[in-house]
Amino acid sequence: MIDKRLLEFAHRLADLARGETLHRWEAGCEAQDKGGEGGFDPVTEADRESERAMRALIEQVYPEHGIAGEEFADRPSQGPFTWSLDPIDGTRSFTCGLPNWVTLIALLRDGRPVLGVIDAPCLDERYWAAGGSGLFVRGGREGALKASGCAQLGSARLSTTDPYLFKRAEAEAFERVRRSVRTTRYGQDGYAYARLAAGTLDLVIECGLKPHDYNALVPVVRASGGAIGDWRGGEDLSSGNVIAAATRQLYEESVSLMSGAD
Amino acid sequence: MIDKRLLEFAHRLADLARGETLHRWEAGCEAQDKGGEGGFDPVTEADRESERAMRALIEQVYPEHGIAGEEFADRPSQGPFTWSLDPIDGTRSFTCGLPNWVTLIALLRDGRPVLGVIDAPCLDERYWAAGGSGLFVRGGREGALKASGCAQLGSARLSTTDPYLFKRAEAEAFERVRRSVRTTRYGQDGYAYARLAAGTLDLVIECGLKPHDYNALVPVVRASGGAIGDWRGGEDLSSGNVIAAATRQLYEESVSLMSGAD
Prior knowledge:
2 copies of one chain form a homodimer. Chain A is α+β, with helices and mostly antiparallel strands. Chain A has helices spanning about 5-25, 45-60, 90-95, 170-180, 190-195, 210-215, 215-225, 250-260, and strands at about 30-35, 40-45, 65-70, 80-90, 100-110, 110-120, 125-130, 135-140, 140-145, 155-160, 185, 205, 225-230, 240-245.
């Protein structure tokens, strides 16, 4: 079980991040290019200041905890706990003035995510889970996380952020899934997993995710009754190839179309 | 010039539509299939009730005006004016519990859109234009519509709703543009044009739009200083192939890559 104080602390981190990101998004925030082999990779002052603020609070309250964030160097843990931080998941949307970006906060115990928060500041929504159960707030009302129960590809609502991220065999495999489902949506980054956990999307397939992208998603999706794993049917997400599904059956049906592509 | 009362009336229509759509989105709304050759084509009670409410108000206040909406049969005009209504542009997003859907309202005079409203209920944002000038409200604050001024494909932020809607030569042409721009986002439907008019996206390219999809966009984009036209450099949008750009130069650069594909 996760101490209640740790969950309360995760909410404090999410509040703090909102305080750094939301007003910069409203004012408009210039993107700089982090560069790298994948071409244009945007980062903003909001990413950096938000992560800086969360790190400072963790160092103050839990100096023995480790920190692994997107924008700065890892801080090793002196015990079982490490925080995984993505101040803005969806920086491209952020810099295009779109509301579909989230802050991702996870707590790892011995390397496994045991607490996750997905916070959507522009939408005033938050989704969180710890100890196997989870809640969300939308429109000022709290509800229990509950995946849809969809067990058939043919009736599934699929989401992926950017279909051009799939290369060669990946793209062919994704195409098989896309042609099998009822409808497909794009551009949602980590918010898609939140809506899966709330029951309005049924399937999310993505590649190239980093630990700070997926750690917070795992407790949230599992607390909703959904399944999340890799493209081969296992639980090792370090390849960055992730499938989240409303049910185990839908996950396995998707694995049967995606496996072999990674 | 457009009578101020007509603009005020358009806002009343948008308020009325919100009253029909937003609570159904929050509660979750089952999609029915309108069918048709393009496969699954969702429609909800929210689409129908919202359009029904707007039609009733128009018939009551302006019985001589025509009405052309997405969900019901056209009502011919007895004068120069016709209302073009799309109660939910982005019904797929609506049924996936995503906030990126809008209500589109346009007033046509002698067949040309002279007033446009793009309303985003979940985001509490509205964008409108008449008589060549336009405003928007976001986060409770009003601002003037102003496109970004981006004149180069290489620095442009591009958006399209679903890249799989482009077929064969269209897909190849879109791919040329996608490879030329700085970043591409997906899944925004009519909201993308609103963000272009507010200066945070620079380019939107889409195919297969219907008159109720594009009529409201035209006054909004033009009032922001942006350009909107077809893929051949003309103003006839009836092919459904639309390019909106922050500047005339960016529009023409895009036309040079897209023309010949339609």
